[in-house]
Amino acid sequence: MKLQYIYDHHHGRAAWEERDLYDWITDVFEVPGIKVQSGSTNDIRNHIANEFTAEGWALNVKIDQELRNTVTAIKDDLGFQIQTGNMSRAPYDLLKLEYLSQSKKIKAAAFALPTKFAASKIGSNIANFERVSKELAVFEQVIHVPILLIAFE
Predict the structure, then answer these.
(1) Residue 110 DSSP code
(2) Do 74 and 59 touch, CB atoms closer than 8 A?
(3) Has this prediction a pTM greater than 0.70?
(4) Which of 31, 48, 125, 144 is most buried by its number of CB atoms within 10 A?
(5) What's the DSSP call for residue 86?
(6) What is the rounded CA–CA span in Å between residue 95 and residue 103?
(7) Dihedrals φ, ψ of 7, to 5°?
(8) Reading across the β-sheet that carries 58-62, which strands appear in turn?
(9) How does pLDDT run along the chain (153 residues), one tens digit per residue?
């Protein structure tokens, strides 16, 4: 697995740089030992969980106590989401991050997805960076939370 691209939505990159976490978050996706392919999502998610846990992040954080909705991780005023599943889940993930921002629980986020090429290796109709970056551009006036969008393959 390796970092391919980033997309900077509402200065998400600057938010991670200001906290001296930009290099760390992008380095998380530099793992030559993980090959992105069918059946690799557990390896990817386990790696992410290990990296974030080691840095003190809370994992699988409920966004509301009555609902079972979660984001991948939260620490201080930052949120993180990874999506390696169906494309229909990605806009919902953006909505969760926006909700956390509007609720003053986070000030910025990172959202990681496979590239379109890598998504095709994982399975069919998998969420991908290219699609989500286009959607963020279209919905710039709707999704206000600063997001560092990360593409890996």
Answers:
(1) E
(2) no
(3) yes
(4) 48
(5) B
(6) 12
(7) -130, 130
(8) 3-9, 147-152, 108-114, 78-82, 70-75, 58-62
(9) 999 999 999 999 999 999 999 999 999 999 999 999 999 999 999 999 999 999 999 999 999 888 889 999 999 999 999 999 999 999 999 999 999 999 999 999 999 999 999 999 999 999 999 999 999 999 999 999 999 999 999
